[in-house]
Amino acid sequence: MANVSIREAVKIYQVSRPTLTKELKTGKVSGVQDGKGQWQIDPAELARVYQTRTDSAKTSGQDEPDHFTNKNTHLTGEVDILKARLAEAEQRAAVAEALSEERGKHIEDLRRMLPAPQEAQRPGWRWPWKR
User: Fold this and answer.
1) How much is the pTM?
2) What span, in angstroms and rounded, lies between the C-alpha atoms of 1 and 5?
3) What are phi and psi of 106, to 5 degrees?
4) pLDDT at 98
């Protein structure tokens, strides 16, 4: 198979154009620049470093790799644990809210049972010189 350009490599392999250009310049992927400054890369070299794109990504028009979706993440277990913790916390919050409401009603009932406060009576003040 003949060498491919950066544009063709991006279409065939799971790599972005800026990433491939950077890795060509740093030497991670070997390629040859022609007189116009365009890179020509051996497909075997690309296959050594990158995976080929799946047919579904080609036909659906997605340019982003599969690892950007949440279905292939290695954190699925942690996400499930966090969802369970969130559900527990929401349940505890609902119970606390109900308990708070019940206690508020109880306090209001107790306030109604108490006698009305009486105004404090001042002792009669008399000046010592008045009788």
Assistant:
1) 0.40
2) 13
3) -65, -40
4) 95
Q: How far is CA 9 from CA 22, 29, 35, in A?
A: 14, 12, 19
Q: Which two tokens stand for residue 39?
A: 């890179």
Element (H, E) at 40: strand 39-41
Q: Three-class SS of residue 4?
A: strand
Which of 44, 43, 63, 45 shows the shortest CA–CA distance to 54?
A: 63
Q: What are phi and psi of 4, to 5 degrees?
A: -120, 155
Write 62-69 long-range contacts (CB < 8 A, 24+): 63/16, 65/14, 66/14
Give 24-81 pLDDT, tens digit per residue: 899 888 888 888 888 899 888 888 888 888 754 444 454 555 445 555 556 777 888 8
Rg of the chain over Cα atoms, rounded to whole angstroms, equals 38
CA dihedral 13, 17, 18, 23 (to 10 degrees): 50
The token pair that represents 101 in the structure block: 């409401």
Q: What pLDDT does residue 45 have?
A: 86
The amino acid sitting at 79 is: V
Amino acid at 97: E
By residue count, the chain amounts to 131
